[in-house]
Amino acid sequence: MSFRRLISVGVLAASAAVLPALPGQAAPSIGSCPNSDYPTNSSSLSLSVSPRTITFGRSVSTYGELRKNSCPVRGATIRIEMRSVVDGVGFGRWVLVKTATTDRNGLFLTSTTPRTNELLRARFRGAGTTFKPATSSSVLVKVRTAITEAATKAAACKITLTGATKPTKISAKITIQKRGARGHFHGWTKFAGGTTNSRGRYSITKQAVCGRTYNLSALIGKDATNAAGRSRTIFGIKATR
Question: Domain residue spans in the chain?
Fold first, then answer.
């Protein structure tokens, strides 16, 4: 075998020892950084989530930083993973929900839309012998049940409140609460109550005091998988005959 052939085989063998980048994606790098090789291959990954409490249907931003020692790692694929939370405790396995790529400063940013309470973490799988895997601390995200409310006035001073829940909550307790007028809030008191049907909807009719004006909101309590949720307040519902 010729000297040139030996050199080519050696280069190929050295290349094969390094985990290749994903198709169309460059391998992670640190650029020029004086501390990149000491201590060898040490990686650290952080994660922040904002906001940490949302209403169903909203998104959260997930962002953080990947470093090797004090050096930013650019071009690295970061996995955003979730784990369900049931009754306040992590349940089941970690599942991939999103990926992001670090920029030249080692920073990443993406978003996700949780449906129920969950833990989020960032994970870097590593790259060859140069970059070791790293996993961030987990962050708890609470998701409030979304609940709507509409009011209809009927004869004999009756008021009917209707609405729906997301995610769908079956046989869930709904409390209709009243408050003071705008600029005069002194807390909530109960006006009426009911439960949702098999479609997560409710319809509650209440005999009100004729001539009185009400400001009403629907409340659903927390359960095993979601935080408590509240509808918008409907102001100025006057009970009439």
Answer: 23-144, 146-238
